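Progress against Task 2.4 (sequence-to-structure conversion) is shown through the following example record, which the project officer requested during the mid-term review.
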Amino acid sequence: RISGGGTVVHGPGNLNFSVISGRRIPRKEVNLDRVIRALGTLDVQAERNGRFDLVIKTGGASGPVTCKVSGSAFRQTARSSMHHGTLLVNADLVSVSELLHQPPRDIEAGGVRSTPSAVANLAEISPGLSAADVAADLAESLRKRLPWLIVNLATAFIAASVVKLFEGTIGVVTSLAVFMLTTQLSRRAYV
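Structure tokens generated for the chain above:
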């Protein structure tokens, strides 16, 4: 993948998400916090770690165990960025483990190295949860943001229209301000 990152196993019970932005730097924390808030409405308490994975605490034999339920990868260009990730909802973790524990191949890559982690399904802490439930909740979360995105877009168009309307005046005033500054600096140089 051009975004680097570790291995992703696509299959039933696994959701994938992508955030494509006109920003050069991906807003990793913001994107993951939106996913965390959406999961919270399903009574799933997830948090992000320093590697931008989403993790949950599951009950282990000797106490709570932190397990990865989502990994992320990123791509940046001069004018845009992409953040994509996975969500293990109720995937077949035995098959995932078998697929991931293959002999390593000699591949030279320039991205961030993958770090093996204990993984879990979101359904382990919220029994009965399905990929469809999570997808619907994420879609609802985005739908709730839509009015604010439209307001922001409308405000940007209004601001651009005002600038266009006064373009001539702005150009003259800017030139006048530069001229006045140059005159002041010239006077100080001779004093």
